[in-house]
UniProtKB/TrEMBL annotation:
The keyword Kinase does not apply. InterPro entries: Acyl_Trfase/lysoPLipase (IPR016035), NTE (IPR050301), PNPLA_dom (IPR002641). Keywords: Hydrolase, Lipid degradation, Lipid metabolism. A motif (GXSXG) lies at residues 45-49. It comes from Catenovulum sediminis. This is Patatin-like phospholipase family protein. The active site is at 47 (nucleophile), 208 (proton acceptor). It comes from the Bacteria.
């Protein structure tokens, strides 16, 4: 194992919110020697975070280049690079999937509201996934993992590619499966149920990895990490859910956004708390006992946004394609109620919004840079 093999980066899901991760990563690049490899030999991602983590894995030999490539994509994003948003395709897809179908069609098609074929095409063009194994063989990378949720078993499945000593694992409702990362893995990990189509891998159909992910830290720990840097999505509460002291009844869009927030953020807080309790217990054990039991302390450092994504998204609401805004009206989301739902902040794949999130990530990371440098032992890089 390399001298940094215990460092991991954990990137969770959040749709368009994942642009924030790029800002944090860019800030870290400012204190990493140019042409240096990744400071994170273990890269773990879920949903949109899986795409960012995999892109970094492709450029593990040069961290600056990997971040630069990511930033270019996110700074130039538009909705049609993720899913087809023109009226005819959007409503044809909706009608086709919501209407009854005969048995023969049922077994050959998956249900989704949106067609995310453009994202699959974009990833196929931009990612040279053969470089992952090259970077593993060259010692720049220990492992990269993509988490998806199995519709069949209900398990959270970590699909990983890494060094030979890393073996598959099985725990309660979660397992690790060695599987060289392909575009299909990324599509599966980011397949929000009903919104995007499920993906078949290894004889199972998979959905967004944030579903059933009760232990987000688990993949990094199983892959060998004991220092995990987390770019989170927990944010200041939306003050627009109240008028004075009076709570505002939630619209359909607010309810959907609330469910997404629960899926993408709440499990992490519980898992970090669990790790802290285990660390405290381990501190009472002698070193021989720890080794005998195979226990180790795990340190985490999490950085979260200092501003509310919903408020930022509301400022860019009109940049969202008209067809999508029309569809969201069914859920009660319009230019007057947009601040009451976090749904927009997940779906607003437009460059002005993404650029603002990137800048927020840079600012937040720079404000905590001394803490980040200490945790990642950046001063020891050469």
């Amino acid at each position: 194992m390399g001298k940094r093999s215990h460092f991991s980066l954990l990137l969770l899901g959040g749709g368009a919110r994942a642009a924030y991760q790029v800002g944090v990563l860019k800030a870290i690049a400012s204190v990493i020697p140019r042409n240096h490899g990744t400071p994170f030999p273990i890269l773990c991602g879920t949903s949109a975070g899986a795409i960012n983590a995999t892109a970094l894995a492709c450029y593990a030999s040069c961290y600056h280049l990997g971040v630069k490539k990511l930033e270019w994509v996110w700074k130039n994003f538009e909705t049609d690079l993720v899913f087809r948003s023109n009226f005819s395709t959007l409503y044809r897809t909706l009608v086709k999937n919501l209407s009854s179908r005969n048995d023969g069609e049922y077994y050959n098609k998956t249900i989704s509201w949106l067609d995310n074929t453009p994202l699959q095409e974009l990833l196929s063009q931009l990612l040279d996934l053969d470089r992952i194994q090259t970077n593993i063989d060259s010692g720049y990378l220990d492992a990269v993992s993509v988490t998806a949720s199995s519709y069949h078993s209900g398990d959270s499945v970590c699909l990983y590619q890494g060094k030979a000593h890393i073996k598959p694992w099985t725990r309660a409702k979660r397992r690790g499966l060695h599987s060289p990362i392909q575009v299909e893995h990324l599509m599966a990990s980011s397949a929000i149920p009903m919104v995007f189509p499920s993906v078949e891998l290894h004889g199972e159909f998979f959905a967004d990895g944030s579903i059933h992910q009760l232990a987000p830290l688990s993949p990094a720990i199983h892959l060998g990490a004991d220092k995990i840097f987390i770019i989170g999505m927990e944010q200041p509460k939306n003050r627009f859910s109240f008028v004075g002291e009076q709570a505002v009844p939630p619209t359909g869009g607010a309810i959907v956004g609330h469910l997404l927030d629960t899926i993408f953020t709440e499990a992490l807080a519980s898992d970090i708390e669990r790790v802290e309790r285990i660390n405290q217990t381990i501190s009472y054990l002698s070193e021989p006992v720890r080794k005998k039991c195979g226990l180790k302390k795990v340190q985490t450092l999490q950085i979260n946004p200092s501003k509310n994504f919903n408020e930022i998204a509301a400022e860019h609401y009109m940049s969202m394609p008209f067809s999508i805004r029309s569809l969201l009206r069914i859920l009660g989301i319009n230019n007057k109620t947009v601040m009451n739902s976090s749904l927009i902040s997940y779906l607003l794949f437009e460059k002005a919004y993404c650029q603002e999130l990137i800048q927020l990530g840079i600012t937040d990371a720079m404000n905590r840079m001394e803490e980040i440098k200490s945790f990642l032992e950046i001063d020891q890089l050469n």
